[in-house]
Amino acid sequence: MPANQFEKWPPEYDQSYIPSPDSEYWNREIETMDPVERDKKVILPKLLGQLRWAYDNSEFYRKKWDKAKVNLRDIRSLADFEQIPFVTKDEIRQDQKEHPPFGSNLCVPRKDIARIHGTSGTTGKPTAFGIGKGDIARIAEAHARIMWSFGMRPDDSVFIGSFFSLYMGSWGALLGVERLGATAFPFGAGVPGQTDRAMEWMKEIRPTMFYGTPSYSLYLAERALARGFDPLKDFGFRVLFFSGEPGAGVPSTKKRIEDTYGGICIDSGSTAEMSPWMTDCECRFRQGMHLWQDIVYAELVDRETRKRLPYKSEGVTVYTHLERTTQPMIRFWAGDISYWVDDPCPCGRTYPRFPKGIYGRADDMFVVRGENVYPSAIENVIRGIKGFGDEFRIVITREKTMDELIVQAEYTHDVDVAQIPELKAKLEGELRNLGLRTIVEMMKSGSLERTQFKARRAIDKRDLYDEIVKKG
Length: 472
Ligand SMILES: [Zn+2]
Hints:
Layout: H1 28-31, H2 35-57, H3 59-67, H4 89-98, E1 113-118, E2 128-132, H5 133-149, E3 157-160, H6 169-180, E4 183-185, H7 194-205, E5 209-212, H8 214-226, H9 231-235, E6 239-242, H10 251-261, E7 264-267, E8 280-281, E9 289-291, E10 296-301, E11 313-321, E12 332-340, E13 353-354, E14 358-361, E15 366-368, E16 371-373, H11 375-383, E17 388-399, E18 402-411, H12 420-433, E19 439-443, E20 458-460, H13 462-471
Parallel strand pairs: 3-4, 3-5, 5-6, 6-7, 17-20, 18-19
Antiparallel strand pairs: 1-2, 8-9, 9-13, 10-11, 11-12, 12-14, 15-16, 17-18
Bound molecules: zinc ion.
């Protein structure tokens, strides 16, 4: 057993602890505990420690909670915890603008920051993250424990095929691999020519696991096949695990990745503000992401009433760090849409799960002619039809006052020209079954732009149209 972390906050872990390789669990006691007991014995004490820390060290939370008239002494249960107001992305951005560069929620002196990361800033000013030294050790511990659940062991070697930059996903994976005692192969991505070199290295080194984004793994496979490699035989990954995009939780994308590479495809990840804690993550049985509630406490709440929902409901994700000293997020409104259950998983862990993954990001959702449209639902249809490749785009335009939903989908090399109309009709038909009236544009293989990171597959041109109309 690792050192007992129930009492002390922030928890400290025994850095030399590694379970026996044949153990299913990193920490059997906590992972398989009766959930009601775990709430009381493990999660609540950690939560109270985290709240006290935040109130004492963060001007941001002190002001926010005082204003909301929340007194920490009144919080004695997880139900009481729902009095705490939500934190939004915009609030964090605004706070950083007023208190540059890290905002008023840093909670440690600048000299105690081990690493600085941030968001890419594609949709506004980037958010800066400072990660404290103690947090680095806890991130490593959490990753190791979670990666153990999908089968990573000290004799594995892990190809990390994602950006080593401000983006934290790759760094979190690296920390976990090192803590677990496996071999890290931090290859990176994004440099011209790197994908071609990646496949040569993979064939040579034969790493047993792959980490990256789902888009990138499919792009890499496509290029590998074009260059005469067989991803199944030449690479031989046992496990491919992903974060940064929801694709690995989309059933037909998961199947495509598993068919292409032969290994199991693991979905993980939550949102930049919570990362690199990868606490939504599938185990090796792939029944949807487990919520590792004693590391990051996840809630699913109703979009309108903002109340916590029972299991077997669909709602919005809200997360709370339980062991983060720098920039902790307390009831962070991540805004992703998911569905949660608590039925048993074959692995024996008693954590709730998102059996359908995160299938809608609030940011990604479109409303077209009054219907909610999730790009992941369209992805699932396209990737489930033989003859379509991995790339597609969703373009929404407004002709006069009517929204048009255009799906541009690439067909594969082996599709005969004569089959194209039939394939187009099949896709339109299946999308119509989802309630979506679309215009499908059949694209030649290779005509849409490829990505080595996160794909931008949905483009909303309606604002552009409105602007032109206004100017005209
Ligand atoms: Zn499981």
